[in-house]
Amino acid sequence: MGATGTVTAHPDLTGVGARTPVVRRTWTIAPESRRDGTIVPLLTGIFGFPWRTATLDAKCAIVERDHGSVGGRTRMVDRHHRVVPDPDCTCGIYATADVDARPAALVVRTRPVASGFVALSGRILRAGTTLRAQRAAIVGPLAIDLGRPPLAAVALMRTPRPPHPLRVTIEAGAFKVLWGWGTDRTGDWLAATAAALADRYGLEVTRP
Ligand SMILES: [Zn+2]
Questions:
Q1: Which domain holds residue 144?
Q2: Cys-Cys crosslink for 194: which of 109, 116, 202, 207, Cβ 3.0 to 4.6 Å?
Q3: Alpha-carbon distance 134 to 154, whole Å?
Q4: Nearest to 175 by CA among 116, 114, 118
Q5: What does the alpha-carbon distance between residue 118 and residue 137 come to, in Å, rounded to a whole number?
């Protein structure tokens, strides 16, 4: 557990007022291709930002066009701040102080997800239940699941025979969960992904 060993990932123990608040976060699980041709699971932010390790230092990636430049050419102005997150920007690592938040509510349908807790440090800005931090470290356990059904399946979820996840494929560089009726073949993917994520991030990973 390294530097986060003394932080317990339970919402009752550390709150938003703490120096290192432990709050909830959700990731999309994405396939990362290795040079040797293997594919390993990677946690990414909702907009695809990769978490290659369990700790992340936020950078500001906002670049603005400066329309006041000379000679009619658009100049790209680097707006990187000295300290991230900046109150007037959208940068930083996002997390929610709402421990009852539906973890997958913002994640793209049919993408497998992981939810768990992050210990935030450095500069932390709060707006409502949304937190933006300079640094974050994932603290276990991490729970993985197969995410939300496709829109076409939502209306069928309350029927006597609702569709369920069948298997996980890779489509356009993303994991995609196929839903329908028939034999559930997601078990192998879930077991392999839980083991690979536990190994990569040094955390306990639970699966449905
Ligand atoms: Zn910024």
A1: 2-206
A2: 207
A3: 37
A4: 114
A5: 5
Q: Tell me which range, 57-61, 99-103, 169-173, is most confidently predicted by mean pLDDT.
A: 169-173
Ligand 1 centre distance from Cα of residue 73 (Å): 24
Report how many domains make up the chain.
Answer: 1
**45 Cα: distance to centroid of ligand 1 (angstroms):** 16
Write out the two tokens for 134: 């300079």
List for the chain the helix, strand, coil content (%; round to 5): 10, 40, 50
Find tokens 């329309």 and name the residue: 67
Q: Which residues pair with 130 in a beta bridge?
A: 96, 127
pTM of the model as a whole: 0.81
**Ligand 1 geometric centre to CA of 4 (Å):** 26
Residue 25: how many other CB atoms lie within 10 Å:
23
Residue 167: is its pLDDT beyond 50? yes
